[in-house]
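Hey,

Quick one before I head out. I ran the complex with FE2/S2 (inorganic) cluster overnight. Inputs first:
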Amino acid sequence: MTKFTVNDRPVQYRMDPDTPLLWALRDASNLTGTKYGCGTGDCGACTVDIDGQAVRSCQVTIRETEGRFVTTIEALSPDRGHPLQQVFAADNVSQCGYCIPGVLMTAAVLLKRNSDPSDEEIDAAITNICRCGIYPRLRGAIKRAG
Ligand code: FES
């Protein structure tokens, strides 16, 4: 049995310890805001916050998550009131929206460390893939949210 904390609640998963965190979150905890895109660590759709780091949850097992603190998009803010969520909604930043939970979690980790990131710092931190190509709007939104 694997134990850790998800969105401030203790969880125990009776699953194969080598299960990717992504599938435990989605299938066992019904936290379906965390998306599956590639399963190979490339797209970032599955990004969650683990102990203050943006982590691609398809690339970490629940064994590796033991004892750690995980935050998913469902707990980024209690009322969708995080500055990033407010700016993304006000400025219609997203298009199809599929990648946005992972983008938001990655950007939130960036802004916690650096509330005034440069274009270069944003590009270095946000390596998430967006098939709609929202990148130009994304930079401006992250700066405003910061
Ligand atoms: Fe994890 Fe693409 S689904 S990086």
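Residues 100-113 form the longest helix (14 residues).

Talk tomorrow,
K.
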